[in-house]
Write a structure and sequence with these properties.
It is a single chain. By secondary structure, the protein is of the alpha/beta class. 45% of the residues lie in helices and 14% in strands. It has 16 helices and 13 strands. Strands 7, 8, 9, 10, 11 and 13 form a six-stranded mixed beta sheet that branches. Strand 1, helix 2 and strand 2 form a beta-alpha-beta unit. It is globular. 47% of the residues are buried.
């Protein structure tokens, strides 16, 4: 999700993508050992993921796992490797659209009848389904909303806002007391993309538009991204920008987390992956997590939450590697694997029988809210990748930086969707 350390990683690891290509479908020098290449993009707690794989290898000494990280925009690299029949054996992907695209291209193994899928929550299956079959294992269930500093809220006798009007009042009180309401993040485009799609998806409910129906209308060429109240959509973006750090355009993910962790800003609009990094900067941080309130009716304000990342198996790998990869995914769904995922990777998972109390207050806030009110799905995960990557992310960032107009953002999204 975040861009920190991307340059170093790119220099050291992109070469790895191609250097070992002619060795991809071979085993190690030991005939009893199978080596798997495991590509992942989420760098929030990569040390934890390494510890998880080491625990698996300890229990399965006949399997070796080589880790490969490409933090951002890895589709071009994956496509290049696929063209050479050299995809990594295990592939971390975003849900919905990426699954569909890779499954359509024949990159992914059909896991529908595999043992691990019996352990997946039924509600998580749509995120990895294409043409009625499952092509990946859904992993972390994540939410995007407002992470807030409880100490600051208590200091100024502020209640967590449940409506948009209450959020406006919270920002007013904070500014009157020289506290920045929202830690900014405008140097990079991905967070702005999450924000505009989060608000847009919530506004669909105002018109009683199901996100799936909206996306279907866009695919059919009958819809427009302007089919919501665009005046409200962009007024909320304006409000968000006006309550950020004055240098938000210079702030990336690391700077956002620093501003929040040290108490300069009282809130940040993020997923809980950012909370994990903020805790590293301030282990004493006491935070809560609430939906971003778009409406005056508190019941309509829900988390933007869905399956985030998934693990698939390359259809290009040889049967021995595929069998070993299946063993790893099945192990992840075991009691040991689930516990390590929570304790080491520090995210929720999508398997039956989850226990997440050890993750702390914000995670409990998310799960309790979703259980009580439901959630708005991550509609951006169902957009064509090029629409989200190019038009939504760039459009929202450029609008927040006051480079282009609201009408231009809508026009660019519509044009990109129609020309995909």
């Amino acid at each position: 999700m975040k861009k920190t350390m991307a340059l170093v990683v790119a220099i050291t690891l992109i070469a790895t993508i191609f250097s070992g290509c002619n060795k991809k479908n071979t085993t190690s020098s030991s005939t009893s050992e199978t080596e798997l290449e495991f590509y992942y993009y989420k760098q929030e707690n990569q040390e934890g993921l390494v510890r998880i794989t080491k625990a698996f290898v300890k229990d399965n000494p006949d399997i070796k796992i080589k880790m490969l990280i490409i933090p951002n925009d890895a589709d071009a690299s994956m496509s290049a490797r696929a063209a050479q029949n050299e995809l990594p054996d295990i592939i971390q992907m975003q849900s919905y659209s990426r699954i569909k695209e890779y499954a359509e291209k024949g990159y992914l193994l059909d896991l529908t009848d595999d043992e691990v899928m019996k352990n997946v929550l039924p509600s998580a299956l749509p995120a990895v389904t294409w043409n009625g079959k499952q092509y990946a294992v859904p992993m972390d269930f994540a939410g995007i909303g407002i992470i807030y500093n409880k100490k600051i809220f208590e200091q100024f006798d502020i209640e967590p806002p449940t409506t948009y009007r209450e959020l406006e009042n919270v920002c007013r009180v904070l500014k009157e007391n020289d506290v920045i309401p929202f830690a900014g993040l405008l140097r990079e485009n991905w967070s702005a993309g999450h924000f505009i799609t989060m608000i847009h998806t919530a506004l669909l409910a105002e018109n009683e538009l199901d996100p799936n129906d909206f996306i279907a209308s866009m695919k059919e060429g009958n819809g427009s991204y302007g089919d919501v109240d665009t005046a409200k959509l962009f007024s909320i973006l304006d409000f968000y920008r006006e309550n950020m750090n004055s240098n938000a355009g210079e702030m990336g993910g690391g700077e956002q987390q620093q501003s929040f962790a040290k108490g300069e800003a009282a809130m940040m609009v993020q997923g809980l992956w950012a909370y994990v990094d903020a805790l590293k900067l301030n282990p004493g941080l006491d935070a809560g997590f609430i939906p971003f309130p778009v409406y005056g009716d508190a019941d309509m304000n829900k988390f933007y939450a869905d399956v985030d990342s998934t693990f698939g198996i390359s259809a290009q790998s040889n049967p021995r590697k595929q069998a070993a990869a299946k063993r790893f995914l099945t192990w992840l769904s075991s009691e040991q694997g689930k516990a390590l995922w929570v304790s080491e990777y520090k995210l929720t998972h999508s398997f039956v029988g989850g226990e997440f109390s050890s993750l702390g207050g914000p995670y409990e806030d998310l799960m309790v809210s979703v259980a009580e009110k439901g959630a708005y799905p991550w509609a951006f995960s169902q957009y064509p990748s090029v629409v989200f990557e190019d038009a939504c992310k760039n459009g929202a960032q450029q609008y927040l930086l006051q480079v282009i107009t609201a009408d231009k953002v809508i026009e660019n999204i519509d044009n990109q969707w129609n020309s995909k």
